[in-house]
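User: quick one, fold this
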Amino acid sequence: MRKNSWLKKGLAIGLSTAFVLSLAGCGGSGENSGSSGDKTIRVGIWDNNQLAGLQQIADEWGEENGYDVEFQVTDWDSYWTMLEAGVQGGEMPDVFWMHSNNALKYMQAGAMLNLDDYIENDDTMNIDDFYPDITNLYTLDGSHYAIPKDHDTIAVIYNKAIFDKYGIEYPTSDWTWQDFADIAQEISEKGAADGVYGTYCNSGDVQNFWYNVIYAFGGKVISDDKTESGFDDPATVEAMDFIANEILPGCPPADAMANTGGDTMFQSGLLGMLPQGSYDVIKYYDADNVDDYGWVMLPYADVNGDGQCQKEERVSIYNGLGWAAYANTDDPDAAYSLISHFCSEESQKKQAELGVTLAGRMGCSDPFQEAYSNMDMTPFIDIEDAGTLVMRPYSKESNWESDICDVLVSAWSDPSTMDEVLTEVVDTMNADLAEENE
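Assistant:
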């Protein structure tokens, strides 16, 4: 069965307003917790790296309002399985993260609390203070169903010890994607006897790697109206050929990348460089050899051939999660109050200060630069002025993303087949988009 097919059959399984109302009481708030708070609000997230900082922020609200805030952390796949089951009548957290790939489905299913009245009556909340692209992700027919939690950008982490060992200069912010590829190949050649490679690019590394290359080259993943694939766009084809011919030669073999994550290989000293999101910084900070790590801004694609970086040639794919509440939580007022606290200017700055992630409110991310005392975080901030942020490509269901990654596996194994594989990618993606738009 296709992922999320339950939403394609919304009426058949009762995702009408009447059915949603019948699920009242499935939320977990309003129960006596037996601990310091009078009641408990349950919060669903999928990233354990953010737990400590978010718990600290939530506990401030809980102490003031007489609640315990209980976080439930599950991995990405289990998280969405949990939400699907919850909408169909199972347990649901009162407050939870929402993602661009799934927002429209859950909003249309009536699973997310309409926040309009709360926002209107909240003197601390001005929705215009948040990144508009992220706000729009969680807006349906003019109504708000989540408030931006954060935004993220991409930078490149590199291992200074590897660069030093092989006599290679550290990358700087004026580098190009060709420079990146050349350095990756040089490290792979010099490090062959040590099993060290220049970089890592799995077909599934979309937001943190090759989507950035596509848009830097002037290509696109999906049409603006989200009805057609962009993988037949000449600039996209050029970018994908560049990945096949210039970047993949500096990577481990495809089967090695399929079995071992890039972060694991990098932290094991087997990679020289790795594009990573601001949401991943915290997992490198605690490394024993953290002093060997440096961050640099993403390269640019010198499309004009003039050796000068134009803003549109340096692209960071970005995204942002939303704080949402279950439509049938037992305690909607408390659920919104907690969301409002998470999204307040003070908490958004504290989220950045604690190194949890960049803020969803504009102008609140500067403290992130100081969150990691022995790491320079400015590449994540500076790219917003030195480059262009492009919202992570998505559509109503976004099933096509995992499907095209599966198709691209063969091209990663044999880069010479990239052009013909892209034809299959276009067909697969267009079929998925046609199905979701029926």
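User: anything notable?
Assistant: The first helix runs from residue 5 to 8.
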